[in-house]
Amino acid sequence: DFISFSYYASRVASGDPAEREKTAGNIFASLKNPYLESSEWGWQIDPLGLRITLNTIWDRYQKPLFIVENGLGAVDTPNEAGEIEDDYRINYLAAHIKAMRDAIHEDGVILWGYTTWGCIDLVSAGTGEMKKRYGFIYVDRDNEGKGSLERSRKKSFYWYKEVIATNGASLH
Length: 172
What we know:
This protein is of the alpha/beta class. The chain is built from 3 helices and 7 strands.
């Protein structure tokens, strides 16, 4: 037995009816946490929230965990050389992987696995757009379905390849 879940962002609530500023999200929005940065789509970036979630689920069920989706949707634009310099994705993933590592080594959580969403750019399930990209591999396609469908590796591809090769020891 194990428990799998997806994690992209945390959610907050307030008992104060004056608190009304909301975040964006695929399933539901929540109140905006003023202490967190947000992605282009308004999703709050909270790697500590991932560690807290891992600990909460582990403490409650005492079953190994598996993160099946985690990633950052962003507009990736090729530079003049045709390369995607997606440091924002690298920073997001590195912070979340560090949070997982802390949950394992410092908190005793058993985490069997982790997969990012996704390995290649695809139509966003949340927005139905091609411009919201998650992958390590860029696909030349726009929202209108135009493009060559040519694929090219982003900077994050090479970074994640090194993360995998070092079992997470090399995050930057």
